[in-house]
Amino acid sequence: MSPYHALMPLPKAELHLHIEGTLEPELAFELAARNGVALRYPDTEALRQAYRFADLQSFLNLYYELMAVLRTERDFEDLANAYLARAAAQGVRHAEIFFDPQAHIARGVSMGTVVEGLWRALEKSRQNHGVSTRLILCFLRDESADSALTTLEAARPHLDRITGIGLDSAEAGHPPAKFREVYRAAADLGLHRVAHAGEEGPPAYITEALDVLGVERIDHGLRCAEDPALVERLVRDRVPLTLCPLSNVRLRAVDSLADHPLPALLDAGLMCTVNSDDPAYFGGYAGDNFDAVRDTLGLGEDRLRELARNSFLASFLEDDEELRAA
Ligand code: ES4
Ligand code: ZN
Fold first, then answer.
1. Would you list the DSSP string of 172-235?
2. Cα-atom radius of gyration of the chain, to the nearest Å?
3. Which of these, 141, 202, 220, 261, has the minimum number of CB atoms within 10 Å of its CB?
4. Of 85, 44, 86, the residue nearest 66 (C-alpha)
5. Which residues contact 184 (CB under 8 A, 6 or more apart)?
6. Are the C-beta atoms of 216 and 195 separated by less than 8 Å?
7. Spatial contact of 152 and 182, defined as CB atoms under 8 Å apart
8. Gene3D superfamilies from the xrefs (predicted)?
9. pLDDT tens for each residue of 97-151
10. Which atom number of ligand 1 is nearest to the Cα of residue 199?
11. Angle at CA 299, nearest 5°, toward 293 and 305?
């Protein structure tokens, strides 16, 4: 760790962060006890041992399993506050936070419990943590298009809390075009739009997310590197990519961090950002991801500053607010 970092982490925005993926083992056990929910693991150490993933699906299985401990508004408030405190300590000044309502509604936890619980932490986040926030509702792409439409309907009473929509969960076999209708409806409601694409899925899913869903950013987008014409388009249109280097290592999207295409993507002129995805599961928060790419990929201070600047430019902050934060 450089002395610079120790004194003052680079101010940054985090644009790719699943709040359910910030559930640390300690909090999972605390909430399990509070709510009388049984976990399959005897203790936090045993649970941490399960954090070895072969691919996206093997991670998602544990991610959905552990959500069982999240039951009340207070649980979601505590979860968000724990994330915001950790993020703030690593220089995050603005966070655009994904949540997966379908995964909670399926367990009998209502949209209102999730959104209003998260909101209790978010509405005080500037004051308590020095972090501005936005909420992005994600649809599970391995659920049906009808389920996504029903979920958007369920969110309608809470739209004053929600800035945009996203698309996550198992990518392969679930192309963006499946969600054409719900993205159209969200656009008509004035919501921002993003989608995971090109994490495990092919580069064609990135193109489809842009052309069919009208997304403003691509979450991950890692596999764009396989298609030079697509890279050219993303550069020309300044489409931000929300990359998550430690996530890519843990889910085996890359063989090792040293093989991560981030330096090549930056050299190609892409608007890259660095984010943590599911930090409790993947070994680090936003600052840890910055440290890792600095130490392992040899990114210099100019590149790190570019990444931090991109994160504010690619955010959904309004212009004046954005300048103050940056
Ligand atoms: C996710 Cl890493 C990742 N990819 C897709 N969906 C997700 N949900 C939570 N983390
Ligand atoms: Zn993600």
1. TT--GGGGHHHHHHHHHTT-EEEEEESSSS-HHHHHHHHHTT--SEEEE-GGGGG-HHHHHHHH
2. 18
3. 202
4. 44
5. none
6. no
7. yes
8. Metal-dependent hydrolases
9. 999 999 999 999 999 999 999 999 999 999 999 999 999 999 999 999 999 999 9
10. 4
11. 95
Residue 167 CB neighbour total at 10 angstroms: 27
Which residue is listed with tokens 């929300």? Answer: 242
Residue nearest to atom 8 of ligand 1 (CA): 169
Residue of the CA atom closest to atom 6 of ligand 1: 169
Contacts 24+ apart (CB under 8 A), 111-114: 111/151, 111/154, 111/155, 111/158, 112/157, 112/158, 113/71, 113/72, 113/73, 113/76, 114/76
Whose C-alpha lies nearest to ligand 1, atom 1? 169
Encoded tokens for 286: 């936003």
Does the global pTM surpass 0.80? yes
Q: Reply yes or no on whether 181 is catalytic.
A: no
Q: What was the ipTM of the complex prediction?
A: 0.97
Any ligand 1 atom below 6 A from CB of 199: yes
To the question of whether residue 16 is assigned a binding role by annotation, the answer is: yes
Catalytic-role residue among 20, 73, 143, 199: 199
Cβ–Cβ < 8 Å for 285, 326? no
For ligand 1, is residue 277 a contact (CB within 6 Å)?
A: yes
Residue appearing with tokens 């210099």 = 300
Instruction: Please work out whether the CB of residue 198 comes within 6 Å of at least one atom of ligand 1.
Output: no
